[in-house]
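step: validate -> pass
step: tokenize input -> pass
step: predict -> running
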Amino acid sequence: MEVDVTVLYGSQTGNAARIATDLTRRLRRMGLRPVLRCMSEMPSNRLAETRYLLSVVSTHGQGDPPDKAVRFYEVLHGENAPRLVGVRFAVLALGDIGYAQFCAAGRRLDQRLAELGAERLVPRADCDVDYTESAEAWMHGALDVLAREVGGGPRRRPSDYRPTATLPGMPAGYSRARPFSAELVDRFKLNGRGSGKATYHLEFSIEGAGLKYEPGDALGVYPENDPRLVEELLRAMRWDDDAPVPAGGAKHSLWDALLRYYEITRLTRPLLEQASRFGMPYLAELLHPERKAELDAYMDGRDLLDLVRDFSLWHVPPAEFVAILRRMPPRLYSIAGSYRANAGRVAVTMATVRYRTHGRDRCGVCSAYCTDRISVGECVPVFVNDNPNFRLPADPASDLVMIGPGTGVAPFRAFLQEREATGATGKSWLFFGDHRFRTDFLYQTDWHRWLQQGRLTRMDVAFSRDTEPKTYVQHRMMEHRRELLSWLNHGAYVYVCGNQKRMAPSVHSALETILAGSAGTAPCEACNRLKELMTQGRYQRDVY
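step: predict -> pass
step: emit ->
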């Protein structure tokens, strides 16, 4: 059917792209001929020519749009943005409700399209990490309205638009919604004796699961909460461990529900808003907009046990209480090996998180579960989360610059294993950083072997606790800025993996400075060139 429908996506880790692809297939089953585009490929002058615009966009960083969508957002919010009168649109926003800027990129897009004269087809939907049900509801609503407006045949029920399998791009059979029970077959510590860190290499068997992955993909892991925290929470609330409550679409004991199905280690504003309805005036007062800073300070480093103790919530029945809890979200870890070199297994690099706040010792939910509480031979629910925005170049002769401090080095081990297995000829340069050379040089033997073979062309390291002042990867980049600029000018691809709050902005700033150092290049031109590298896929980031 000749109806102009564009499905537009902005994706950082691949989720928005998968949903957009699935939506496009459903539109085709309606008899339409939709056009699927990444935001980096959407000419601004075509927006006004689109009758229906269905957009799926994720938020990352501090409320930012995906890297490949930055240019699109700049044009859309610029003075020369096209008028969109006559365009019907709908926005699906992906995010993490634990962050202050939840779904900010989607909210900005929704607001701007309306400002430019477009009319909403259905209201925007804001999706948390566990987005499946919200995304399905949004798609059903949009497709139902579209079917009524387009006409041209009998209307289908919303269920007719459902996919017959998992989302495109996800492994058949096993997925985020149906994880595979993978056996932990190996685990060893990467740090040396005397290190203040606990970083582990873990390998899981996926033999017979039909799961495959590419370098740059992540392994999704569904953890369990610390049983000691569950026990303390049950005692504080004076609940019966065996009380039946809904969880995972069925009835479970309260103990099992809190252990496996619900997040209990993180406070969010939506959670506190719902808890305040249990008749807690002091909590309601804390939620006033003018007390935002105080609320943020309270939520920082506290968990559900703190909440129920601080606000005396023990009068709430367990079934009502778990109804306000967020589902346990999976944790994503960059895969640290190549499928071609490790068929039947998948490896990740995991740093155990331990800290003390507000008078209590605490730990990372998934890291402590995988490195402390399960044993080799036990099974863990996992799935492969493909990431098309963090991929090796199609041309094996292309050069790579890889920047990955700490556990951020994991995907680059996969990159080099893959290049070794495929015989890629391009040069490679790794920037790695951590605390101390003697105890924290992760995968040191692998890097040295690849250096000797010539598979890794060069490596520069920064061990911050060994120098005064502290030296980080961005400092090493600046020390070698002339060579780095030469690599960039000759077509090298740049990859960054690691912390989004500190490392990634510092590396980004260093790259802008290096590009600005080119003869006759103004700072604004360097900034634009870096954005262009993002759009071209020559600057890719996997930051968390």
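step: describe -> The domain at 400-543 is CATH 3.40.50.80 (Rossmann fold).
step: cleanup -> pass
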